[in-house]
Amino acid sequence: MRVLCLFLFISAAASADDAVDRAAIEHLIGALNNLTAKPSVEALPALFTADVNRAPANCFLAGHWRLVQVARHPWSEVSTPRLETLGVEILAPGLALVDAINRQIGVSARRIPVLFVMKREGADWRIASIHSLVDCTKSSNLLGLGSSH
């Protein structure tokens, strides 16, 4: 009986920790969405780990901000792109996989799948890698972090 009680207690504590981690990850996705409203290249590095996989991250950001520019065109009939989390899987303590879409609504609506790998650094979650189905031929070094890994 004690073993069962201990197992239930540990499961409840892990579930509570997962809920806190999921909320922090949602907050990080929200921070990316806030940058869409007011792009700030200076604010970007704080959202990423020091060892971020730079090439895919720069590709995603360049593609995302191209969609933002389309939405801001005076005659645009599409909304500003918005990241929506579809699922969060805690793979290990401090490591998560986030399934999301980059949604843009309008005449030419877009739903671009995005996959995030996130790591906890101290108390904060950071983006370690982003992968999306975006044309990377026009990407730039928006993170300003030097060469890619």
What does this structure look like?
It is a single chain. With 149 residues, this protein is of the alpha+beta class. The chain is built from two helices and four strands; from the N terminus they run ααββββ. The chain has helices at 2-37, 54-72, and strands at 82-92, 95-104, 110-121, 124-132. The protein has a four-stranded antiparallel β-sheet with strand order 1-2-3-4. A hairpin with a 5-residue loop joins β2 (95-104) and β3 (110-121). The chain is globular, with a radius of gyration of 18 Å.
Put the structure in a nutshell:
It contains 2 helices and 4 strands; from the N terminus they run H-H-E-E-E-E. It is an alpha+beta fold and 149 residues long.
Keywords:
disordered C terminus, 4 strands, 149 residues, alpha+beta, 4-stranded antiparallel beta sheet, 2 helices, globular, disordered N terminus
Strand order of the largest sheet: 1-2-3-4
Global structural class: alpha+beta
Strand runs, count: 4
**What is the N-to-C order of secondary-structure elements (H for helix, E for strand)?**
HHEEEE
Regions with little confidence, pLDDT below 50 for 5+ residues: 3-13, 141-149
The percent of residues in helical segments reads 25-40%
Let me know the average pLDDT.
76
Shape: globular
Distance between the termini: 51 Å
**Using only CA atoms, what is the Rg?**
18 Å
Number of DSSP helices?
A: 2
What fraction strand? 25-35%
Biggest sheet details: 4 strands, antiparallel
Summarize the helices and strands and which ones pair or pack.
Layout: H1 2-37, H2 54-72, E1 82-92, E2 95-104, E3 110-121, E4 124-132
